[in-house]
Amino acid sequence: MSIDRRSFIKLLGASAGIGLAGVPMISVANEIMPKKGRRVVVIGGGYGGTIAAKYIRMSDPSIEVVLVEQNKDFVSCPFSNLVIAGLRDLKENTISYEKLTANHGIKLVHAEVTSIDVGAKKVVTSAGTISYDRAVLSPGISFRFDEIEGYDEKTTPEVIPHAWKAGPQTLLLRDQLRAMKDGGVVAMTVPQSPFRCPPGPYERISMIAHYLKHNKPNSKIVVWDANEKIASKEGLFKKGWAKHYGYDAKDASKGLIAYHSNSKIVKVDAKGKEIDNGVEALKADVINIIPPQKAGHIAFHAGVVGEDKKWCPVDQITFESKLAPGVHVIGDSCMAGPMPKSGYAANSQAKVCALNVVQLLNDKAPIDPSHVNVCYSYITDKEAVSVSAVYKVAEGKTISVPNSGGVSPDLSELEAVYAKGWIKNILTEMSS
Ligand SMILES: Cc1cc2nc3c(=O)[nH]c(=O)nc-3n(C[C@H](O)[C@H](O)[C@H](O)COP(=O)(O)OP(=O)(O)OC[C@H]3O[C@@H](n4cnc5c(N)ncnc54)[C@H](O)[C@@H]3O)c2cc1C
Predict the structure, then answer these.
(1) Which end of the chain is more exposed for a tag (fewer CB within 10 A), N or C?
(2) CA atoms of 431 and 94, how far apart (whole Å)
């Protein structure tokens, strides 16, 4: 039996009454789906969660899978930098859950998960509780806004988009660039590593420069990067910026891109459109602050965040939390050694986790994983670059397999073709 959104809301309406704003009111103590057999509850229907839900059902259809996701559709961050540059429609980045849930008998609940009662093995949602035998958490990231003075979590992103979760924020940044005068200044800040998508900020710089070159050639993008260097594909990015956007590492006044490393934003004045790095202030027409990051909020409420108060320590073979037995954490929120916080990595972790959740539920030994990751970045509308790696677990730690990966030899049109194939395949895999 599967429960679609309409019948789920009907069920809530019948049993609980509808609140003033049309929001179902139901006690959190209310078990909304009484459990009959073995059940896994997957939290978060993004890059990790959709794949974990699907592969558990594919590996053992006798296990019931409930996927809890707060949004109706999923909007992909990969390829959202192209939307900002006006090279892609956000609709192409948007997938629904209908086919995935129907094809694999996954029960979908649209609700926000507010906590996990690890002792009682219950996921607490805004719609009631759901019991589980094992839970898989893939909630992505949340932001450490409090590290930037003057940043108001509610109002600042309305004026200064982060666009680091795709959706309305992506469109706001795109529209601000479109509305800017030729000759304007775009300021962008990159947080200290680790953050979601290591090459993502540098692809965004390239895409904004591409937009400026073709639409507002007298303008400039000024970048403050909190890091000492670009962690991923530095040589290729800088080569591409020099080739296409007149970038000069020695003279920031030249070209469309002025890039500064070791420059960390400490303060923002959203009204005055000004940022400050403790040494100087910079006024800009459009500002894009990518805030420092941590695990998704629910990871904190579930008690699975480690001593660093940022990310979730997990067993590297099963992705079971080191702090909450029976709860597995995958994707951006988890610590997986050198694996980047990428959609590709979340997909790979989800498959390994799904397989080992099934092994554990069938009283079998977990299987040693092997992971792969490839991250493509666009430099122009036609040329892209990539970085790839293979990972394995040795003595309980995830390590890169020596000589297994590397970066693409140069900027290339073929890499852009591969990138397009990748996004099509991965979004299809998540949505069917
Ligand atoms: C600009 C940009 C470009 C990128 N480009 C690439 C790329 O080219 N290649 C690549 O591999 N990666 C890329 N990434 C990284 C990629 O987006 C993430 O690594 C990936 O989304 C992580 O997957 P996840 O499952 O951890 O989180 P997500 O995919 O964000 O999924 C989390 C889901 O959980 C839901 N959720 C969260 N909390 C709750 C809750 N309490 N209750 C219910 N639901 C909840 C959210 O609504 C969301 O649907 C990019 C990121 C950015 C920002």
Answers:
(1) N
(2) 10
pLDDT in tens, 330-347: 999 999 999 999 999 999
**What is the C-alpha R_g of the chain?**
22
Identify which of 100, 5, 88, 7 has the alpha carbon closest to the alpha carbon of residue 50. 100
Residue 48 structure tokens: 């990790």
pLDDT for 125-159, tens place per residue? Answer: 999 999 999 999 999 999 999 999 999 999 999 99
Cα distance between the two ends of the chain: 18
Domain extent for 228: 149-291
- Secondary structure (DSSP) of 371-421: EEEEEEEESSSS-EEEEEEEEEEETTEEEEPTTS-EE-SS-BHHHHHHHHH
State the pLDDT confidence band at 15, using cuts at 50, 70 and 90. Answer: very low
Close Cβ partners of 421 (under 8 Å, ≥ 6 residues apart): none
| Average pLDDT value for residue range 206-230 | 98
Tell me the best of 70, 76, 294 to mutate to test the pocket of ligand 1, counting ligand atoms within 8 Å of each CB and taking the most.
Answer: 70
- pLDDT tens-digit profile of 168-177? 999 999 999 9
With respect to residue 381, please indicate whether it lies within any of the assigned structural domains: no
Across 260-272, average pLDDT: 98
**Probe target for ligand 1 pocket from 43, 47, 334, with the most ligand atoms within 8 Å of CB:** 47
> For residue 117, what is the domain's CATH number?
3.50.50.60
Residue 21 in domain = yes
Give the chain's mean pLDDT: 94
| DSSP line for 74-98 | EE-STTHHHHHTTSS-GGGGEE-SH
Pocket of ligand 1 (CB under 6 A): 43-49, 68-71, 74, 77-78, 80-81, 112-113, 138-140, 164, 196-197, 200, 296, 298, 331-332, 341-344, 346, 375-376
Q: What is the pLDDT at residue 232?
A: 85
CB 372, CB 389: distance < 8 Å: yes
Confidence (pTM)? 0.94
Same-domain status, 265 and 315: no
Three-state secondary structure string covering 310-338: CCEEECCCCCEECCCCCEEECHHHEECCC
The span from the CA of 211 to the CA of 380, in Å, is: 9
